[in-house]
Amino acid sequence: MRAMILLTLALSLATCPNRALGEDSPSLDSIRWVLGDWTREKEKTANREKWKDIGGGVFRGIGSVVGRENGKVRSQESLLLVEMSGEIFYLAKVKQNPRPIAFKLTDFSNTHAIFENPDHDFPKRLEYRLREPGMMDVKVTGADGGFVIPFRKMKADDE
User: Fold this and answer.
1) Average pLDDT for 48-72
2) Does 159 score more than 70 pLDDT?
3) How far apart are CA 117 and CA 104, in angstroms?
4) Is the separation of the CB atoms in 117 and 102 below 8 Å?
5) I need a surface site. Which of 11, 39, 50, 154 has the fewest CB within 10 A?
6) Residue 63 and residue 99: Cα distance in Å, rounded?
7) Contact criterion met (CB below 8 Å) for 101 and 77
8) Quick check: 140 and 133 in contact, CB under 8 A?
9) In contact, 115 and 124? CB cutoff 8 Å
10) Pairing between strand 36-41 and 58-67?
11) Which residues of 91-111 are buried (b: 16+ CB within 10 A; e: fewer)?
């Protein structure tokens, strides 16, 4: 019986994604690479995300789409990455929703972070992936597809 319990425990640890021995819960430190000013320039608009560590287990972000000709903000969302009770949540407050939408961190490493909310209409999944230093992709997906925003880091000194 004891051997069966040890085997079950070993298999459980072996199949837990991105969890080293002794690492029971994620930490914002493991996704610190998201901090800074990120941009994606297109012909008529620019996507921007700006993330800062404000302490207390919170990263604050602002996501926006800005017109390149006039600099006018076309859309904006308030973002938070919050570490609480041994878990990390991505909170997004957009104008069209009366309350923030929460996504739970479900997988992470030193180059990616995946947040999911299967009950939300769109998106259901947000995947942040550091392709190389200074280059990050944000993949936004739902039941019927999605899109990828390739960001370039503007400033390295915000970390």
Assistant:
1) 97
2) no
3) 7
4) yes
5) 11
6) 17
7) no
8) no
9) no
10) unpaired
11) bbeeeeeeeebebebbebeee
